[in-house]
Amino acid sequence: MLKKDNLPLGILLGFLTPLFAFFLYYFFVIKPHNNVGLGQFLGILKDNKQMIPKLTSICLLLNGLVFFLYTRKRLDITAKGIFLMTMLYAIGILLLKLIR
User: Fold this and answer.
1) Which UniProt keywords are present, listed alphabetically (predicted)?
2) How much is the pTM?
């Protein structure tokens, strides 16, 4: 499935990779040091809205790695979908920064 070169796969990967990175960040950075549950952490994010763009930016770093791997394998159409979702996330981050 991951060897296909199509746009919907790239969009799906571009959407899910930052979510996966969020859970990795929670389980390896937040939980061991603070012993905070996932629901509590989401509540903290809800209360501290200035943390959301920062955390999303960190999660987008994994999208860059996936984009690099797909361009390296010459699966350019899938890489376009990943890049499209990365740009949509980036626009969302900018809008969140401007709203505050």
Assistant:
1) Membrane, Transmembrane, Transmembrane helix
2) 0.84
CA 33 to chain centre: 22
**Residue 83: inside a domain, yes or no?**
yes
Domain count, the chain: 1
Does 2 map to a domain? no
How many angstroms separate the CA atoms of 72 and 86, rounded? 18
pLDDT score recorded for residue 66? 94
Asked if residue 1 is part of any domain, the answer here is: no
* Alpha carbon separation from 36 to 21, 23, 29, 60 (Å, rounded): 18, 13, 11, 23
- Both tokens of residue 46? 């809800």
47 belongs to a structural domain: yes
